[in-house]
Amino acid sequence: MKISHSSHWGAFSGVVQDGRLVAVEPFAKDDHPSEILQSIPSALYDNSRIAAPMVRAGWLEDGPCGGQKGGRREGRGGEPFIPVTWDKALDLVASELTRVKAEHGNAAIFGGSYGWSSAGRFHHAKTQLQRFLNRHGGFTAQVHSYSIAAGLAILPHILGDIRSIRNVTSWRDIAKHTKLFVSFGGIGLKNTQVEPGGAGEHASGQWLPRLAKAGVEVVSITPLRDDSAEILNATWLAPRPNTDTALMLGLAHTLVAEDLHDTAFLARYCTGFDRFLPYLMGDDDGQPKNAQWAADICEIDAETIRALARKMAGGRTMIGTAYSLQRGDHGEQPFWMTAVLGAMLGQVGLPGGGFGFGYGSMNAQGKAVNRIAAPDLSAGANHAGSFIPVARIADMLLNPGGAYDFNGEARTYPDIRMVYW
Known about the structure:
Elements: E1 2-7, E2 10-17, E3 20-26, H1 40-44, E4 54-56, H2 57-62, E5 81-83, H3 86-104, E6 109-111, H4 125-134, E7 140-143, H5 149-159, H6 163-166, H7 171-177, E8 180-184, H8 203-214, E9 217-221, E10 235-237, H9 244-257, H10 263-269, H11 273-281, H12 291-298, H13 302-313, E11 317-321, H14 332-345, E12 354-357, E13 386-389, H15 393-398, E14 403-406, E15 409-412, E16 418-420
Parallel strand pairs: 6-16, 7-13, 8-9, 8-11, 9-10, 11-12
Antiparallel strand pairs: 1-2, 2-3, 4-5, 14-15
Helix pairs in contact: 5-14, 7-8, 9-12, 9-13, 9-14, 12-13
C-alpha cells in the first residue's frame, strides 16, 4: 500500500507493508527530490523516539516545585524519568496549567514548541499548542524565527512591508532579464532541499542550470567556495566572515565617487539618502568608507571591489542576500545595506533587477509566487499580550522582570513558571 504524504523535504508516497513504513518514493513530478526523504523510515522507528509520556521521578512523587508539597529541585538533571499513561499525563498537565494560571497569571506560561514540526497545517505542533493555550486565556509567545529574526525586525522599517522578504523576483525572471547576480552568502543547492510546509517540486535544481544557460553572470561572495552550485561557474570572492556590510559600503562609495549611483531614483523613491551620504563619504567621522577601507576589513582587494561596483552599475543587476548574513553580529546591518545598495543602483522594480533576500536559503525563494493562499489554521488571539524575541529564551528564564530593548521598544521579561514545549 502507498500513502501520499508531504514533508519539509518534499512530497512523497510512503510504502507500507503490514502496517509499517518500509520505504518512500519521491513525488514523480519532482525532478530534483531531496535525498533526505530516504531517511524517513529509519527516523520513524529509531530507538531515540520516546514511546510514552515521561515524568521526572521527584516531580511525579512530590508535585511541582513551588507546589503545596514543595517539590524537589535538586533532582533536575540527575533523576530518572518514569513512564506514565496518557490519561495520567493529561491530568498532570491540566492540573499544572490550572495552578500556574491561578497563582501567576497566563503570562507565566511560556508556549514554545518552536520548529517546523509537521509539514501539514492542521498537524503543526506550534499552531495547535498556541491554539490550545489561547483558549486557556493566553501565554507568553515568541516572535520571529531563528532563521531570519534580525531581518524580520529591520526590514519593515526600511522597506515598509514584510512581503519584501517573502515575494522575491523569480528564477524565471532572473534567467530572462538579469545580466549579473551578486550573491552575498552564496546559492547553495543543499539548502534548497527544504521548504516549510513541503513542496511539490524543488525549483532551484531546475532553474540554476537555466541561469547558467542564459548567460547570467554570478558573483558568489562567501567564505566557502561550495556555497554556490558548481553549474553556475560563479566568480568566487571570499571575505572575512561577518564583514559583508563593510564590503557593501565599499561598493556604495565607489558608486558615488564615480557618479554611478542613480540620483533620480533616490530622490523620487527613497527617503534618508541625504543622511546616509555624509557617513559613507566620511563627512561625519573623517573616514570615507571607500574601497580601500573596505578591503582592509573584508580582505578583498580594493580594485576588485571597485571593478565589481562598476559592473553592477553597468547592466541589469540582482543583489541576493542569504538569510545566514543576518545571523551574525549586528545582523540587521547587511540586510539594511542590501536595500541601500540596491536603491543606489536604481533598478528596484525593473525586471530582473533590484535585490532579494533568501536565494539559496531554502526552496521557496525564487519560485514563482502562487497568488492563491494555501489553507491555514488560526491559533486565535493571545489575550495575555506577552511575548519575547525568539532568541531570548535563556535571558527570559535567567532575568525575570529584567529590562531589554526590542524593535524600538523598552520591554520587560515575564516571570515564567511553566514552559510548555
